[in-house]
Design a protein that fits this description.
It is a single chain. By secondary structure, this protein is α+β, with helices and mostly antiparallel strands. It contains 5 helices and 18 strands. The chain has a single domain (10-282), classed as 2,3-Dihydroxybiphenyl 1,2-Dioxygenase, domain 1, CATH 3.10.180. Keywords: Metal-binding. Residues 10-126, 169-283 form the VOC domain.
């Protein structure tokens, strides 16, 4: 059940802008259990396994609070290895007085909370793919109540919180966009994703390798929503991991065919979706 490997294209890393790096690091370390892999005065790379960073924080110059009704980050989603890990985090958050929401999406079970700047975070565990229900190319998803009593039966009694599990992945990202027609063309024709769920005319869920979604996009902040200011809290960029360099070259060619320019910055390939969301292509 691995939809985040070198046979697929997936979101491997998210870079989030914050207003106060020190305050944010306290939250991400003490509440979410990340460790610092690298740190400078205005940025930090976070890790769960001590080797790989799946999340970075940066404090831009003259940072301003998160702006409403704009494109950008809706939430990033941390995928845990086992159901007991989600049960452990439920207890940990509760013991620390952290408010969170929850949902059963049929394909997954999830918690939702915000960091000190209002950036939304999903923490989830996948159900076994054999339990997912597909109709043609579309997977069934819902927003049902989470059964906490059943979930907490997976917890090891008396287990002490030890931080975010080492096998935690960046499971997916969900973005606010300004419209869906050009957005679908960008992610499907340009980047090679498949649409696996349509939420009316307001949202699309996209994946490779028959995952329930690696990327979600929605217009819930309004059709025509503007880009946020560069120095506002929110998402700076996310990284798409492709299978190999050949796949990157093919993707660049496909993007150029739909008139999307790809630039190179310090050896990294950078593209922007039609709503201005910044994407790094890596292999």
């Amino acid at each position: 059940m691995n939809f985040h490997n070198n046979q697929t294209t997936f979101v491997s890393h998210v870079n989030v802008k914050v207003e106060n790096l020190e305050r944010s690091l306290q939250f991400y370390q003490e509440i979410l259990g990340f460790d610092i892999l690298e740190q400078t005065a205005k940025a930090a790379k976070l890790t769960t396994d001590g080797k790989t960073s799946i999340l970075s924080l940066e404090q831009p110059e003259n940072a301003i609070p998160k702006q409403g009704r704009t494109t950008g980050l809706y939430h990033f989603a941390l995928l845990l290895p086992e159901k007991k890990d989600l049960a452990d985090i439920v207890v940990h958050l509760s013991e620390n007085g952290v408010r969170f929401g929850s949902s059963d999406h049929l394909v997954s079970e999830a918690l939702y909370l915000h960091d000190p700047d209002g950036n939304e975070i999903e923490i989830y565990i996948d159900r076994d793919p054999s339990e997912w229900s597909w109709t043609g190319e579309e997977v069934a998803m819902a927003v049902d109540p989470l059964n906490f009593e059943r979930l907490l039966k997976n917890r090891v009694p008396g287990k002490v919180w030890e931080g975010m599990p080492a096998g935690t992945l960046m499971g997916h990202i969900h973005l606010h966009v300004s419209e869906l027609v050009k957005t679908e063309e960008f992610y499907v024709t340009g980047l090679g994703f498949d649409v696996v769920n349509r939420f009316g005319k307001q949202a699309l869920f996209l994946s490779t390798g028959k995952y329930h979604h690696h990327i979600g996009v929605n217009t819930w902040n309004g059709v025509g929503a503007p880009k946020p200011p560069k120095n506002s809290v929110g998402m700076e960029s996310f990284t798409l991991m492709l299978p190999n360099e050949e796949a990157i070259e093919e993707t660049v060619d496909n993007l150029q065919k739909i008139c999307v320019s790809v630039t190179e910055e310090e050896g990294r390939r950078i593209a922007y979706d039609p709503s201005g969301n910044r994407i790094e292509l890596a292999a």
